[in-house]
Amino acid sequence: MNLARTDVLIIGAGAVGTALARELSRFEIGVTVVDRLNDVGGDASKSNSAIVHTGFDAPPGTLESAMVVRANPMYDDLCRDLDIPFRRTGAILVAVTQEEEAELPHILAKAQANHVYDVTPLTAQQVRELEPSVTSHVKAGLHVPRESIVDPFLLVAAQAENAIENGAVFLTSCEVLGLRRDHDGFYAETTRGEIRSECVVNAAGVFADTISGFLNIDDFKVHPRRGQFHVLDRAAPLGIEHVILPVPTPITKGKLLTPTMHGNWLIGPTAEELEDKSAHNTTTEGLAEVVEDVRKRVPDVTPAFAISQYAGLRPVREPGGYHFRTFPEFRGYLELSGIRSTGVTASVAVAPYARRLLADMPVLNRVKEKGRFRLKENVVAKRKGIPCFREADTKTKEALIEQDPLYAHVVCRCETVTEAEVVQAIRRRPGARDWDGIKRRVRAGLGRCQGGFCGMRIPQILARELGIPLEQASKKGAGSELLDGRTKSLRGTS
Amino acid sequence: MDIVERDGELVFPKGICRRGREYARREIYNPCRVLTTTVPLLGGEIAMLPVRTSKPVPKAKLIPAMREIASITTTAPIAIGDVIRADVMDTGIALIACRNVAAK
Amino acid sequence: MKNVTCDVAVIGSGPAGLAAAVAAHDQGAEDVLLIERDAGLGGILQQCIHNGFGLHLFDEDLTGPEYASRFIAEAEARPIRQILRAMVIELNANRELLAVSRNEGLLHVSPKAVVLAMGCRERPRGAIALPGFRPAGIMTAGTAQRFINIEGFLPGKEIVILGSGDIGMIMARRLHLEGARVKAVIEIQSCIGGLSRNLVQCLQDFDIPLYLSHTLTDIHGAHRVEGVDVAPLDRHGKPDLSGSFPVSCDTLLLSVGLIPENELSRQAGVRLDPITGGPLVDQHYQTSVPGVFAAGNVVQVFDLVDHVSTCGTTAGSSAARYAAGEIAAWDDRMCRIEAGKGVRAVVPQRLTADRDADEVHFYLRSGSVMRKATLQLSNGGNESLFTKRFRIVRPPEMIHVAVANGDFIPSKSYAASLRGEIT
Asked: Which of B38, B67, B72 to mutate to test the interface with A (most CBs of A within 10 A)?
């Protein structure tokens, strides 16, 4: 196993790790990000409600609140520069009982305490004017105008592409099996070899305790809180354009209904405290609970609208709250734990904050000047996404086909995704290596028929582009191959 | 349909037509099925050629026939009805092509 | 971008589209365009390599590809323009469509009449909210059929099939013959979802276990399917977890329903029937949008392809007549035909006033299994326009009746109902 060397090793290519990598890649620092999964995007970071929060309901005065409130306004520029799907839909809290209605002034006060000053009360009539599909039993509401939606996977992937463009290295399928500190730095033992670095940043989400545990820092635990979701058909007659929020409880933000950047709606999540960090399975009870709860606010929702379901595991730290920690006995180790619920949103503000924490540590003196990191010359600041055929107007469609004839080959009927886009998804750095990676980048297989039509074409394109045999084309890496052998392989055995 | 055998003869319920009786007799004494499958096709516009037995074959021969067919590969061009194998598992029944396929 | 005009554009070259294109030409349409997204004609029939097609229309027992070849030959014997490897991505209420073709790039087509013949698609896992992990190895039965019969790949070695519709049962046999182990077919209803002949020839012939009134409660395996949990239903129709048992497998095929492909219909503003999921159509198979016709599974899921062809023929010749100005759009002299008691769905749902044909052919599905059933078509009063008796009716087996056209009174509503002994 060879020894790779880097200045900063970031463990976890989810929202936080990737945002930090992008941030650091602007400076003269060697950055390596490792993730045990076979793609960037993380775990919780890609299976959530895809909402960019304002922080109106964060615990006031906390690090979480500060990060989220700071992050929200950063999204306009970020998403414009990196071509990330993002929209300021606004959110409406809907109170359907008197108890909930009585909560609203407290929530308003909490918003103010969090420095979110643009939350306004709504009467029942005003709620229904904004969103006619909300139940006629609505008592009152709150309008949170800057609550927004984003494509959370592309948020991470776009930042990863940009970071790589500026010199960062991402190693996927690279699980950290051990970590120790020596006199000359950290040694991380991974499934792809040993990595030596001067700094280590723990952005490992639900495995943050495992990573800190390697250094015998065991004063906290992380357990997963599962959130199950339904994805609703774009054609569902809901007509809802705002995020529809329940009145929040202390445990979770409740079960919401939100439009997505791709025209669907999400409903969810549940909040199940679990122990198993790989329990990404949905359950009958959980899925039913989601529908039942959302119907209190939007009665038209029915399971018949659903086209797919998923479950995400939020990392819950105990003791709770955002913890950005450094340790005198482990110079160069930065633990970013407890980031959850608002983690995706906060990530873009956590990044510069963490960069300053690293700059303040007595490490990386080689790359510092007067205690600060040196900015690179020629930082690539922008990134263009893969041109989307479906959303292009006719003229643009023609131009795309002109430039790349594979844009005339529609591979995914439901989402009108072309072969050109699938190929680009594979060729980007970091690129898709399997069907899920393609799905997340260009949506093939995500639509109404869930891969029925494109079922064969995607594996064929994967095999061709990656130079692998068709039988190796997988859903999400080794062990999840999509096809068995040729038909003849089993004949004669029955 | 409930059928009873009495003294070596089948007794049918009332009102069953001739076709129905013939079907029932075959099903009881010598059930046969048309076998349909695919064989790999070389040099054609498509990769797998759909084929069928030209007539139903005895049920018991279906799996043995599949094993025999497993070793067949054929080449384009193909016309519907082309005999791919003249006699499947000694049934005297041919395996024929179900689709026209031009050479690539 | 190429601009193309024509008399009739047919979208889809499966049995409905082929029949429609041929009929449109024979009715006198000079310029008929047949648009197909695959590399060749025939649509879904090309992957339906089993026999059982054409018993009504040809009095022969044909495989899907053989049946298709009859109509392909008819189409190719006529000057019908074929545009292959072309996907129609937009259709508007003026019948203008936008297609993207591998060979010709973007195509803008302005036909005088359109026939929608895109068929149907299968309900995926998400539509029935099957819980569990999301591993590789879960797909619809039709997708597996395409993998095996067109591409030559097996989806897996140990199979469980959810749903006893025809596609599920057919695939059980196909996989068994190719040497896979089909461990179970699970059906939530108390009777099979497909034709009785398939129960015999696909499941019983091969001793493939069928579990009626059962459902799946879990799917195991994070990367590849490892097994499923099967549970019987209790008297309330809910899974009885105490009777749950595991079945190990590496593949789960879903045969849980077909839905008409209505993306383009919606775009064009065609009014849909919430029960069938397809467009409301009149006896010409014209939809609510003038000049837009629909035929085959895109209207409602048929069980016999012979009926699909007949429907396609009617739609195609009507489209040609519309293009020639001989058929009018809907107006308020229309009759409405509704699914009444005991009937799940009826097509056509409208009758326009122009009564050129002697008879109207209706296709209905019963809501449940009924013995000694009486089908009635009546307009609310005690008078029945049409009556027919059946020994037995079953939901998977479509009922086809011909009713004298002249008996319908303009602008009246009629209901089709079924009465009998429910088993």
From this structure: B67
